[in-house]
Each structure stands twice: as structure tokens, then as C-alpha cells.
Amino acid sequence: MAKSIEVDNLDIYYGDFLAVENVNVHIKAKSVTAFIGPSGCGKSTVLRSLNRMHEVIPGARVSGNVRVDGQALYAPGVDPVAVRRQIGMVFQRPNPFPTMSIYENVLAGNRLNAKRMGKSEADDIVERSLRGANLWNEVKDRLGKPGMGLSGGQQQRLCIARAIAVEPEVLLMDEPCSALDPISTSAVEDLIHELKSEYTIVIVTHNMQQAARVSDDTGFFNLKAVGEPGQLVEFNPTTKVFSNPDNEATEAYVSGRFG
Amino acid sequence: MALQTQAPTSGSMSITAGQLPRTATPMVAVFAAAIGVVAGLLLGSGIAMMVFIAWLVFTLGLFVWSRTVEGSRKAKDRTINAVVWSAFVLAMIPLVSLVVTVVVKGGPVLSPGFLSRDMTGFAALGQGGGIYHAIMGTIMVTALAAIIAVPIGIFTAIYLVEYGAGKPLAKVITFLVDVMTGIPSIVAGLFAVSLFIAVSDEPLPRLGIGGGIALSLLMLPTVIRSVEEMLKLVPNDLREASYALGVPKWRTIVKVVLPTSVAGIVTGVTLAIARVAGETAPLLLICGTFPSANWNPFNGAVQTLPVYIYTSLSQTSHAKYGDIWTDRVWGAALVLIIIVMALNLIARIIGNVFAPKTGR
Amino acid sequence: MSTTIDPEPEVEQAPQTKPPTRAGDALFSGTALGAGLLVILFLAGVGAFLTIRGLPALDASGDSAYGEPNIWKFVGMLLVGTVYASVIAMVIVTPLAIALALVISHYAPKKLAKPVGYLVDLLAAVPSVVFGLWGLEVLAPRLLPLYKWLNEHASWIPLFDGSVNQRSLLTAAIVLALMALPIVTAILREVFAQTPRAHEEAALALGATRWEMVKLAVFPYARSGMVAAVLLGLGRALGETMAVAMVLSATGTGYLTASIITSEAPNTIAAFIANYYANASGAKINTLIFAGLALFLLTFLVNFAGRWIATRGQVKG
Q1: Residue range B113-354, CATH number
Q2: pTM score
Q3: Can you give the pLDDT at residue B150?
């Protein structure tokens, strides 16, 4: 079911402020694509424009084209709510719903959309999603406990389980490991490897080793200059970006000389 | 003074030189209390005077002693410390006195009969009578106010936090809520009167719904403010998590934002209800007095507890029935305090017990 | 490659799911907006009805102005009384509230601070009619000896002149002060608590005593907040009705006198309305409503000034 994403001439504004300029990228289906680059250069902004989450921020707008399997995301008549049901997202900080149990958290996407389902169907979804997120064995005995009671790494995997429970086509991850310790990070990275077989994954990360470990393609973002909008400097297969990048700035960045 | 000669020796002998002993404060307090009692007895003055003298001696004594041992800066610090805590005690005296008086004077009056009878037939005789009708009136009018103010207040707060943020209309509403906060309660009553003069064409309208409207006007800003605060406390992460699952905004608010903040909202609403339950002035104007329970909010005066207390007070000087009226006043005051304090207590319990479980 | 590409505008599944969600959103946000507009309408109604009923009183005189030659004299007298009683209340409450707020924010140990705060909040929970009752029956008789003493020994001060009465302006002001105490304390303790920790520690590290730290670090930072708190407390005291109506033994619009321990005191707007409403009719109702309108404007101005100073202080801080 995974889909590819094509981005053409994408400009993103916050009010009058042009945050990201002229992004062109082709994200392949069933692959992991990483966005790297220094802080504040628009990686997360681009990621959020891929499922129209940036619209949540007042004043944010885009121009240009984003197509998911050929369907224009920003065509008139497209319902952002429907888009987000098919393109899931995992955030920087784990954010399980505090009023819900682990079980309810996994089902949140279905329940909140008032989807009717039987008990056995719901149980199936919970088990499948938690297994998919490598969390099932750790929580299967306490599904009724609050999701906030888990450790940070478990909470983040719970959020991934919650995202894949609605069976999205694409999974966007916004620095999913930046709030986690190394062991939890490794668990999430393993998970990304496994999820790749079924989902198209786009991940924003500050950690270059992580990008090198998990991704097939890498895009490097940078500011044009101080005070100028961010832009996509280079987009190539990960091996190339990290060994023989086209762009000097990319090389400086991946070799640790700035950023 | 005896203490002054003693202190430097104890100070210089210990390694805490230049400091008063830890027991300095209680020592001076005992000394001051003794002086106060003796002086009071000599002067033949009352307890208030004794306490005042003792306090004066305590503050001055501590200052002088500390000044000789520790220097003027430390002495000033100690004195301010004493003054600040004295202010707290001073502020608590009325609260304690008020509660004690109401309980002592009102307690004996409370009986099943007092709570279950109304004032029909008994008023003129000075016999029996009770406040059943006033309790029911207070409950009805307060409930009417809550029915009007709570939904409007919650939805306004939702608009301000979830939809209006930054919009001019939201700024206008926020400003008007500020204005509303400052409406004197009697003005809310006058508004209800003006409104129902226009609606009913009576020269002096008296009806329960008028009280409900007046109280809801006083309640609205409190409800809006507290709900607004609570909604703002809900982390944006949760809203985004919900949006990213493809949940429409209104379902996000209903299923994620409101449940997360429900404890705070219920607390705020309960406190707002408690605040208006004891409101007197507007009800005096628009609800008036009535000797029995009137369950029809659209017709006729409704007796409420605060107004009962206020109007009964003028009867307490009655030559023959003054005493029974005095009893009624204090009994009603006790019941009113119990209702209001219970609501406050419930609000705090809800706030503490049902707060979102964020802990690990 | 440019924006001219125009594929099917529909995401799959959208046709079924879209209309209901849109309707739900529209309904819900419409309700929220409606509630907000209702609040505006409510307040507009208050202004409109009070104005419509109050303005006829502009012609009031003699009997319909409760014995005063015209409405302005009538309202003016009551305004003086209202402001006088409230200002005395604030003179009493300000030092007390500052001390209480300091106890809660800086002096009390962590464990004690919370219960102390609760106790102060409890004062706010006492209904005003009970405060009035207590002021009349308990406080006033206790104050009488003090008033007599003041009158004997200090009657050369205009404040303590005249014939002593326990139900005086000062008694009313003390009760008002108690009622304003919780709100002033609550604001002040927020203000004090916002002092940057670094400033306080800097002062302490220089060897300052606690009081010097408060003077050096807390008060300068809190100055505008303190003014705002006092103004907002004043706004509260101005509009308070029952306590004054029950405690003060003023008749009619009262007398213009500086003395605060006699019964010949100026009356306050709110108390006058409460005491005279029951026997009012016709033009007198309009007069009372006009007085209420004046009170509303006065409290609005005071509250507005308080909030303005508070927000200005925040920007500066």
C-alpha cells in the first residue's frame, strides 16, 4: 500500500515570512528517506507540509506541488483531515494521550474518528500494531494501564503503534529519537528497518549516524544565508551523501565541520 | 532588662557568637505574654489590649535584643519577619471569629424542623418556621445561573483558546470578559430588573429566572477565565498527535482536549457556582422574599438564603420576637456557609484527585 | 514541473468521509463562536438596559432624587461615600495583603505556604451577607471602645471627630478590607512569585538578609504589579454591597463629613440601592438604576486602570 511522494517547487511561508524555498524531491515508496541539516533550516517544516500538518499553525501556507502517488495534496477540495488519516506522523517528544490507557491509545486513531468495530477486531488491531512497534511483549499484561506510565522509549513506540494502527500509506517521523536514551533509540531504529517493508518512511533527524544507519536516501537542508529561507541543498542516496556528496556544504556538514 | 544582660554571655560563650540562641523567639514571646497579662491586669483592660501590649513588647523586645547582639540589619530582618507573620495572624482572627460565631450561634438553631419548614403562617406568630423555602430557592436560582453560564462560558473559552487565538474578535471578547469581571453584583441585579421591567411591564418585577440571569452574568467571567486557563494548559503536542491521526478539530477538542482538562474545568465551574451561591445583592432586587418555596422561576418572588438572612436581620430588634429572628438569622447563615464551603471543598477535592495522571 | 499540473482533486475515500467531518467542524466552531458572540450581546444588553432605564433619571429632582435638588448632587454624594469607604479599606488592606503575600511567597516554609494560601482563599469563600452579619453583630461592638478612646483623645483629627457610633464608616471599611484581602493577596503573591530567582539569589549572595533581599530584588520588580493589585482590590471594594448596607448606619445619601467613626457618614451607591430598592417605585427606580450605572462606570475605570498597569508591567518586566 505504500506510496511515493513527489514534491515540486515547494515554498512554505509563515505569514509573510518565507521559511523554505523551492524544494524538489522524489521520495520512493517503501524506502526510508532522511532529512538532515542544522536547526532552523526547515526540515520539520517540509515534513509537516507532507501531511498538511503545518496548517495547524496559524498563518502557515504553501505554494507548489506535493503529489502522493500522483494525487495533488494541495488541490482544492482535498480534505486535510482525510490526508492525515493516510499519512501518519510521529513527533519529537512522545505524546501519548494522558487520559487514555495503552490499549485506548493504540486505538485512538480509530476511536476518535468514531469508527465502529467489534471487540475482537479492536483487539486484533491493538496486538498487530503493538507487535509492529516492538512493544507487545513489554506491555501485553498491562494494556489497561495509562500510557503515560511507560518509559520515554516505550511511549515513543506506543506513539508509533498508534500511528500505524490506522494503516497509513506513509509514516512521517519528526526527530523521533531526540528525546530518547541510546537503548530506546536503537529499539526505534530497528523498528524503522522493519517498518520499511510496508511503509514509506520520511524521517527528520539531527543525528547523522542515525540517518546513515536507517535511510536509503538523504536530503541535506541548509539556510541559503543567515536570515534567508532554508533550502534543500542536496538529495542523493545515503551512501553517496555520506561518502561522496555533490555539494561542498553537505560534505562540511556530514564530516562534522559545521552545524 | 533581664534578658539583655543574659544574652551577650550566652552568645559569647558559644561558637554561634553574634547570634541569638535558637530559642530566642519563644523566650521573648513568653516574656512578652507575661508583661501583657500583668500590664493588662494592672490597667484593668480587656483581652484585646493585653494581646496588643504583649505583641508590642514582643516586637520591640526582639528588635532591641537582636540589635545589641546581632546588629541593626539582622534586628530589622527579625522585626519584619515578626511583623509579616503578625499580619497573617491578624488576618486570620476575623476568619476564625466569623466561623466560630456562626457555628456557636447557628449550631443550636439547626434542627430537622428548621430545615424542613418554611415561613408560612409562622412568621407573625414568632413560632417555629424554617428555611426550607430559602434553601430550595438558592438551589433553584443558582442552578438556573449555572445552566445559563456554564455552557456559554465553556464554549466561549473553547472559542478563545482553540479557534480565536490572535483574532480581533477574540481580543474584543477577552476585553469584555475583563469588563464583566468588574461588574458590581448590585449592578447585575439592576440589569435583571431593567430587563424584566421591559419584558414583563411590571413596575417591580420579581422572579426566579431574573436572579438566574443576574447570577449568570457574575458567573460567566469566572467560568470563562478558569476554563480558558485549563485549556491553555493542555499541551499542543496532544492536539497535534490527534490531528496527525486524521481526527477533525472538533473531535480533537471533544475527545482529547476536554478530557485532559476536565478536572480543572470542573473545579473552576464549582468554584464559580460557590461564589454566586452566596450572592445577595442582585437577588434582593430581582428575587425578593416569599414565605414558601416557589418552584416557578417565571412567576413570582423566590426566597433565597442570603436574602432571607438580610431581610430577617431587620426583625431582630422586634421587642417580642427579636430573639427568634436572631436565631433564624444565625441558623440560616450557618447553612449558607456550610453550602458554600462544601462547594469549595468539593472543588478542591476534584482538582486534586482527578488531575490528569501525568506521573510516571 | 510547474504548478500547472492539475490531477484529480480527490484523495481516495474522501467522498464519503469529507462531508460529515466538515459539518461537525462547522457546527462545533459555530457553536463556540456563537457563545463568544452571546457574551458580547450579554454585556451590550447590560449597557443598553441600564442606560435606557437610567437616563430618564437625568430630570430627577426633589422626591425622585431622594431629597436632593438634582441627580448630580445625589450621585455625587454617594460617589464620595463610595470612594471614601473603599479608599479607607485599601489603606487597611494594602500593608496587610503585602505582608500576607510575602508570607506565602517568601517567608513561609514550603509545606506551610499552601495551607496558608488556602486559609486566605477561604476568606474569599465567605458570602458577603455573612461578612455583613459578622461585622454588625461581632466586630462593631468590639470596636466601640476603640472609637470612644479615639474620640476622647484624638478628636482634633477630623477623622475622629463627631458623635461616636459603632456602625461607622470605619467599621464598614474594615469589613470591606477583609473582603478585598483575598483578591489583593492572590494577585500580589503571583507578582512576588514571579521575581526572577537569579535576582533573589544575587541579593542573598551579597550577604543581604531576607528583608534586604525582599527590598532589593522583590519590591522593585513587583512595583507595577503591586499598584495593579491595589487598584483591582479597590474595584472590588467599590462594588461591594451587602457588607456596607448592613454595617453602615447611614440614612439617605448621608452627610459629607471626614469623620470615620460616626453614624453621620456619607452612604455608598451599592448600599443605598440595596437599602432603598424595596420601597422604590416609578421615577425612583430610574434614579437607583442611574446610580448603578455610575457605579458600573467607576468600577470599570478603576479595573481598567489596574489591568492596564498590570499588562504594562509585564511587558516591562
Answers
A1: 1.10.3720.10
A2: 0.84
A3: 94
